[in-house]
Specification:
Blueprint: E1 6-13, H1 18-28, E2 32-41, E3 46-54, H2 59-73, E4 77-82, E5 88-93, H3 98-108, E6 115-121, H4 127-132, E7 137-139, H5 147-160, E8 165-168, H6 177-183, E9 187-192, H7 203-210, E10 214-221, E11 231-238, H8 245-268, E12 272-275, E13 278-281
Parallel strand pairs: 5-6, 5-8, 6-7, 8-9
Antiparallel strand pairs: 1-3, 1-4, 2-3, 9-10, 10-11, 12-13
Length: about 280
């Protein structure tokens, strides 16, 4: 097996020599850099970097040393992980199953660098399918009258699995501010890119009636502001007057699956830095 690498993401006020100092720190410890990328927000004077290297010595110990160096000597905000760490992921779903199946199969095939540990749902419809994948399924109905207690139950489940990431595979409920605050873990959501133009039910039917020429999908981090969290990945496809409503739905589902998968992959591969409600993505 290949030796584990260290992946660091850092950002902070720009100053001369940051790239050289990071590379020099790694070189002095006989590390071998595999990937390095950086970005400069000129307007905000903020420097961003992602660097991955093979350490010569104990990886966790070197990670702790780099964390201290980047924070104390460079004045950067930094996160670092060992590549062999496999984050635990929970999937939330309602009844719509295209992203549900696609995401599970990508985890099963080893395409995504994490461990899918459970499925949570507010409907029982996908329990049998989840069990067929040999994944624990937890059902809790969520309605206006019991939303607080239902979310408390969901939080208990997520904590019991010690999840690092939650992905919403068309989970048709709004997560409350309190839920997101108590969870203290990132949540990735996927939706069509019609919002706010075609909000509500049957967006592809609405798009067909309006004769739109593009449809799309957006994956973003969930925040208390509905569908306004930092965007991770987006894509679009062209349509025309020849496309029927079923064709729009099919094309939309294909986009949602691929965009959702790419967003999860980018997160698990530590390729995203979030600041000021937007993202820098080192893809």
């Amino acid at each position: 097996m290949a030796a584990p690498t260290l992946i660091a993401r850092l950002f902070g006020p720009d100053k001369p020599g940051l790239v050289a100092r990071v590379a020099g720190w790694i070189y002095q410890r006989k590390g071998n850099i595999h990937h390095a990328d950086q970005h400069m927000d000129v307007a905000a004077n903020i420097f961003f970097q992602r660097v991955e290297w093979t350490p010569q010595e104990d990886a966790p110990a070197e990670a702790a040393d780099f964390q201290e160096f980047a924070a104390n000597e460079l004045g950067m905000q930094v996160s670092i992980k060992v590549s062999s760490q496999r984050p635990k992921v929970a999937l939330m779903v309602s009844k719509i199953d295209h992203c549900f199946h696609d995401t599970i199969l990508r985890f099963k095939s080893g395409e995504l660098a994490g461990e899918l540990v459970c499925v949570l749902s507010n409907h029982p419809d996908l329990e049998a399918a989840t069990q067929a994948y040999s994944i624990p399924f937890h059902y809790c109905p969520v309605q206006a009258a019991n939303k607080s207690s239902a979310e408390a139950t969901q939080l208990d489940w997520l904590r019991s699995y010690q999840v690092d990431l939650v992905v919403m595979a068309r989970y048709m409920q709004i997560l409350s501010d309190d839920f997101l605050r108590q969870l203290e873990r990132p949540v990735i959501n996927i939706h069509h890119s019609f919002l706010p133009a075609f909000a509500g039910g049957k967006p592809y039917h609405q798009a067909y009636e309006r004769g739109v020429k593009l449809i799309g999908a957006t994956a973003h981090y969930a925040t208390p502001d509905l569908d306004e969290g930092p965007i991770i990945h987006q894509d679009v496809t062209r349509i025309n007057h020849r496309n029927s409503i079923p064709e729009l739905v099919r094309k939309g589902k294909d986009l949602e699956k691929s965009v959702f998968a790419q967003a999860i992959r980018l997160h698990l591969d530590s390729r995203i830095l979030v600041y000021n409600n937007k993202t820098v993505v080192f893809d």
